[in-house]
Each structure stands twice: as structure tokens, then as C-alpha cells.
Amino acid sequence: MIQATTPAAPIAWGTLRQYLERDQQLSEALLALLESERTCLEQRDYSAFEELLQRKSALLGELAGNGQQRLQWQQSVGLPDDRAALAAAEAAEPSLAEFWRQLATVWETCQQRTRVNEQIAQRTRIVVGRMLDILSGNAGQGSTYDAGGTTHRLQTGRNITTV
Questions:
Q1: Where does residue 52 rank: exposed (0-12), middle (13-18), buried (19+ CB within 10 A)?
Q2: pLDDT by residue (tens digit) across 19-37?
Q3: Cβ–Cβ under 8 Å, residues 142 and 155
Q4: pLDDT for res 3
Q5: Beta partners for 151?
Q6: pTM above the 0.85 mark?
Q7: Which residue stretches of the chain have pLDDT < 50?
Q8: What is the rounded CA–CA span in Å between residue 66 and residue 36?
Q9: What residue spans define the domains of the chain?
Q10: Which CATH superfamily is domain 13-139 in?
């Protein structure tokens, strides 16, 4: 015997659109902030960079919170994750699904900009480390690695700041 199942309640796609529109606003703000962060890193404006880090942290917190609320809503209407929600939106509201896909490209751009900024910051750390080595008399000396893979210079040179 085949059991009849009751159809799920219709999904209020406007609610999902509101969550995604908020994600879009926050993501666009993050893109602009990441561009400013890159400029600060390239110009070595570390005081402005510190301020941007605080703003970025708050913005990422808002994005995470909105994402969590969206996920809770999705689960409350029977959509266990983003993949299921996107598939359901594709069938019922194709324009919403397209909006979501476009938003995903914004998120990918944010990830790319973050990677670039991380590379700039890493290069800056290396340059500053080398300059400190030169000033402390450790330029050209051998190095060792600790358990975490961090390079440590051997302390055998004369410190340029001492007589």
C-alpha cells in the first residue's frame, strides 16, 4: 500500500531573498574594504590597516550571523543546506537562484582578494624580518627550523646597534 504524504507548506521565497540581499550588501562592503586593505598594505599604512582589520572583523561577524540565520530559516522550511535550498529555488524561483549564483561570484572575488592581501602581508613580513636580521647583525648567517617550520637565524653576528 502506498502512503500519501502531505505536501510541505509553500516556501516564502521572499524571506530567502531578504537574507541574500543582506548578504549582498555586506559582501559588497567587504569587497570595498578588502580593496582598501590592499592599498594600506601596499603603502605600508599600518595605522589605517589596523582600523580596517577591526571593521573587517565586524563585517565578517555580520556575514556569519546572517548566514546562520538564513540556514536556520532554510532548515525550518525543510531545506537542510544551501545546496538543497538552491535546487528548490531553481525549480520554484529561477530568478532568485540566479541572484544567489551571482552572489556566489561576489564571495569568490572576496576570497581572491583576501588571498592577494595575505600574500602582500606575507611578503612584507619576510622583508621586515630580513631588515631586522641585517640590523641585528644576523644577515647571511645560517638558519634552522623549529617544529612549526618557522625559520630561526643563528645568533652569531655582531649587532649593528651596539659598539
A1: buried
A2: 999 999 999 999 999 999 9
A3: no
A4: 38
A5: 145
A6: no
A7: 1-7
A8: 24
A9: 13-139
A10: FlgN-like (1.20.58.300)
